[in-house]
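Hi there,

I know you've been waiting on this one. I reran it after we fixed the sequence typo, so this is the corrected version. Both the input and the resulting structure follow.
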Amino acid sequence: NNSTRMNAWFGFFHGDYREGYKWWNLLILVRRLLLACFISLLYNSKALQVMGIYTVLSLDVALSLALKPAIKASDNIAEAVAVSVLLLNYEVSRQDWTKGGGDVIEVILSCINISVVLGFFWLMTHAVFRKYLGVLRSCMRRRYRS
């Protein structure tokens, strides 16, 4: 079957999205392309570059929260958080910290970034750990019953 073969090859591309939002990964690729274009092609026009980057990232957060394209609600929230933190990092990197305060901001931003990474790690692994913890518990119960 052609549909089965296509899913085997390209299923990862639309696998975790609700029906009607299988195109969401394409939108993410367009976002990346637009960001690359704004950063590289509008290098001499900082105002247009900043406006383009803010527009793309803000629209991405708004669409993620409004449309909720992922099957799991936590994935929708994770996408919005990731793009929001990217926006925060971009804004902080644009500021002139030569007059002071940069060290404190750097520590705060590092804590935020580490927290987000740990949160994403937990989102990706907690279901697996819970599954294996349940298997381990059932094995232990059987062992003590014997």
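Quick highlight: The mean pLDDT is 83.

Best,
R. S.
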